[in-house]
Amino acid sequence: MCGIAGIATVDGSVPSSQTIDVMLAAMAHRGPDGQGRYEAPGIALAQARLAIIDLQTGDQPLFGPNGTSLVANGEIYNYVELKDEFPGANFTTKSDCELPLYTYQRDGAHFAHALRGMYGIAMSGHEVVYLSRDPFGIKPLYYAQISQGVVFASEPEVILKSGLVKREIRSAFANELLQLQFTTGRETIFEGISRVLPGETIIVRDGQPEERIVEAALPNGPLLDVSEDEALRQLDDVLMNSVMVHQRSDVPYGLFFSGGIDSTAILACMAKLNERPVRCFTARFPDTSKSEEASFAKAMAESVGAEHLEVMMTAEKFWNRLPAIVEAVDDPTSDYAIIPTYMLAEEAAKEMKVVLCGEGGDELFGGYGRYRSAMRPAWLGGKTLRAKGFLDGFGVLRDESRSWRAGIAVAERNAASRQWTKMQQAQATDCTDWLPHDLLTKLDRCLMAHSMEGRTPMLDPVVANFAFRLPDKMKTRNGLGKYLLRCWLEKALPNSQPFAPKRGFTAPVEEWIADSSAKLASLVSKSEGVAEVCHPNAVEKLFRSYRGGDKRMGIACWQLLFYALWHHIHAEGVSAEGSVFDCLTA
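^ thats the sequence. predicted structure below, dont judge the formating
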């Protein structure tokens, strides 16, 4: 797990060493264990390293046959098995990231096809540069076309701080963010900066992106024709296998544990696979309506002999730490879960570098209620996914059109063109944008802000090939999603209450905002970023009228507060030091 960056030039010149210095400094939080760089005619590669596997000889860049060079951010979990496919190869390190150099020698531009893991890779070979990202988009990679060629990095802020791209905000994307809590597609909220999309390998020749190869995250095969008993047996195999490879590490690892279905399933596997007690980290919100969920998580952890640490999330911490949290999510997601995720990482980083997390279980096993709704016809209450934006009906946006939904509509059309069930189409739509641009961006930024690696066993090709192809009746039954996963958990850990209502990392931000809504009213409404896309008077009225109790209104206030802070920090250059009120008045 690291940060990577680089430049591929149009004219074959050697990129500026000073620019690479700036980019390395900008991503030092992603890799405090060392820095590496490679500069040659036409290319510069740089890496800030977080050492997880091969602590002694795994420094990057890595160099392979025929003059290839590589920097990578992530983990290749099947590196042990891949080495067997190259008998006689002269591996110079024990690093998992050395393997792409050999799959490239064998498979050319399709080198990523053999990789099982999470990664953002930049590789130079045969006068071509390859920018590659794992199929689910667990690890980020961004690029920008500039006059000198292509500049790329693990975070947009690294590109912006290089000075090669001007810091400009696309207001239409701000609308999308406010309505969805994330932005969709290739283009980011920053003018000129694009994402390498999940599963893409972009071929850059002479400083120009020329071709894109895509590795799909979701399988095309037919639905599985298996009995429930056989499905449970197969599920046990794939879960244990995935958790096993996700534990490959030369440093200690733990688990972010909410007590929900997904993290409890991972806990059950880890408890079986590890001789030592699993170290669990859980968020607790004392004196709020969310406190009871943490009590259940504690009881579950103790029932399998895990060591359990509760991290307290108070209103005071919320107000004091939120600017730093917002600073971490340069590619913005206003998901509530950034708050506990960031604070859990802050605590866990005191004793380890790696945690396993439950992201992806809902998307692959069919957990969300919106999937069940999408399966029903309209006359039976069926609804389109994300048909309503978070600010709809409040009269605050200058642009009240439906343009914010254009990116989601593209994903829906692409999913509908496949031979998939309605449930699968809804799952695929979420895997296109919501998963990589919200959940996984949140996980990457909040953990990497503390130099931590987050691993997601649910988002594994072995798991996806099984779970996505389950028939709908094994995903949803009796009004509950993740039916088969719940059945498996009921056998693995009977006291986990898997058929109880969903639990998760949810922060009571509506309660906290309600207590300070009057104070926030003028601060948020006067924000430069908010005023650009909203009617300030309507924003102020919304905050002044919010006293708690109305969840939709509370979420709308949160969306606006998040964007006001985000714009202050990432567009206006305001310091993230101090509290929310310090930041908004700076």
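The radius of gyration is 23 Å.
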